[in-house]
């Protein structure tokens, strides 16, 4: 009776739909199974290729090491030959030496695509993890992100410095600002080490510059509150604002270089010639350089002011006998901080100024060579 009622009232229909959907499920499962089999095949091929890739990487790395050693021995041999050489031989030796130097540059480019052991710093910070990015696209994206990170942090730090200088003169806000600086420079040193592992030609000083800046911000962070601190505070904050402005200009220059160089490498994004890039770079550099040099001399000025501060009488009293006086003097006598800061600013000035001069000189030399060759 129940069955009859169900048949009349159409309850059989859902049972029929259920059967149909089960069929559909089964056919879907078969389809998924087929795709899964294909995925398994593809993954197997991928694993094989990965193994091949790892083997090729090992072969290339050991071949480069072998070639380097052979070239080093050859260089030694050539050096010995130079003692007893004729004019014709000199020419051959010079030619070989140039070729050896070029070969070393080629090895540097090759190694940018091979996994390698991290240096001491990256090993300490990240552990022994491979940081080599294997494709040009990934390398470009990482560098682009590094430049963007610098830009965003520059904006934040500029707001921080403006707030401290014009809005709030509270020690705690200064400390937050200085802590942010320490963190920012630490992060830059890590990112730059990764960039260098990926074939970036950042000069050693620019990386060291960020270690020195981390130290400087750390000393600023621990400088005790007092008249000495207040005397230098405004000058330091104004310098920070100026440095952020220069960093803006630097960002547009460096990002412009990055995009144009990439276009030169790929040739399909922008129709850009090497000469076009050179003229753009020189225009950017001549605009940027006066601002950079002004910043360097501001660093020197900071160093001089701080040396003067550290030589003041109220910064000299260190032989304090009573505990209460020790506490009081801890606030007012900050000679080590002031002296260390002065020294650090001097190191920054020398490093930045001399390296910038060297970079410009090298670029001019390269330009001259190119003009000669054309
Ligand atoms: N910080 C980080 N990376 C830098 C750098 C810096 N200050 N200067 C150059 N580089 C990088 C470049 O991006 C490039 O990287 P890539 O190989 O991954 O493409 C590489 O180093 C080689 O650059 P190079 O051709 O030598 O110089 P450039 O034309 O890019 O820049 C300067 C030249 C002078 C504009 C630049 O070095 C600079 O701005 N220096 C001044 C920094 C300074 O003094 N700051 C304090 C201001 S108060």
From TrEMBL:
Residue ranges crossing the lipid bilayer per the database entry: 149-170, 280-301, 338-360
A GO term from the CC aspect: nuclear inner membrane
Membrane topology designation: Multi-pass membrane protein
Taxonomy, superkingdom: Eukaryota
The UniProt record lists the keyword Zinc: no
Keywords on record: Coiled coil, Membrane, Nucleus, Transmembrane, Transmembrane helix
Pfam family, one: TMEM120A-B
Location(s) in or outside the cell: Nucleus inner membrane
Positions in coiled-coil regions: 22-56
UniProt GO BP: fat cell differentiation
Family of the protein in this entry: Belongs to the TMEM120 family.
PANTHER family on file: TRANSMEMBRANE PROTEIN 120B, TRANSMEMBRANE PROTEIN INDUCED BY TUMOR NECROSIS FACTOR ALPHA
Record function comment: Necessary for efficient adipogenesis. Does not show ion channel activity.
Listed name of the protein: Transmembrane protein 120B-like
Native organism: Cyprinus carpio
Higher taxonomy: Eukaryota, Metazoa, Chordata, Craniata, Vertebrata
Gene name tied to this protein: LOC109065572
């Amino acid at each position: 009776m129940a069955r009859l009622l169900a048949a009349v009232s159409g309850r059989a229909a859902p049972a029929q739909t259920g059967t149909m959907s089960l069929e559909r499920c089964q056919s879907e499962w078969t389809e998924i199974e087929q795709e899964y089999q294909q995925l398994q095949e593809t993954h197997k091929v991928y694993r094989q290729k990965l193994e091949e890739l790892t083997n090729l990487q090992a072969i290339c790395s050991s071949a480069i090491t072998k070639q380097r050693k052979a070239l080093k021995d050859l260089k030694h041999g050539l050096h010995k030959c130079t003692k007893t050489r004729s004019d014709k031989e000199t020419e051959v030796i010079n030619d070989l030496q140039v070729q050896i130097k070029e070969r070393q540059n080629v090895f540097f480019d090759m190694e940018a695509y091979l996994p390698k052991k991290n240096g001491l710093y990256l090993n300490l910070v990240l552990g022994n993890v491979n940081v080599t990015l294997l494709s040009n696209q990934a390398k470009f994206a990482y560098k682009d992100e590094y430049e963007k990170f610098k830009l965003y942090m520059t904006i934040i730090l500029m707001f921080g410095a403006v707030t401290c200088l014009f809005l709030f003169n509270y020690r705690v806000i200064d400390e937050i600002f200085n802590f942010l600086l320490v963190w920012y420079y630490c992060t830059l040193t890590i990112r730059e080490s990764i960039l260098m592992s990926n074939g970036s030609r950042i000069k050693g000083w620019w990386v060291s510059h960020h270690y020195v800046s981390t130290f400087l911000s750390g000393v600023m962070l621990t400088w005790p509150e007092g008249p000495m601190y207040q005397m230098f505070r405004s000058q330091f904050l104004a310098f920070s604002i100026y440095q952020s402005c220069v960093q803006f200009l630097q960002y547009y220059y460096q990002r412009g270089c990055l995009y144009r160089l990439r276009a030169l490498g790929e040739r399909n994004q922008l129709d850009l010639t090497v000469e076009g890039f050179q003229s753009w770079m020189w225009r950017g550099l001549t605009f940027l350089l006066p601002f950079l040099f002004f910043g360097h001399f501001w660093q020197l000025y900071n160093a001089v002011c701080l040396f003067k501060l550290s030589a003041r009488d109220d910064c000299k009293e260190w032989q304090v006998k009573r505990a209460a006086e020790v506490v009081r003097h801890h606030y007012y006598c900050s000679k080590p901080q002031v002296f260390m800061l002065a020294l650090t600013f001097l190191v920054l000035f020398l490093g930045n100024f001399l390296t910038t001069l060297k970079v410009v000189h090298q670029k001019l030399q390269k330009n001259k060579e190119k003009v000669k060759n054309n």
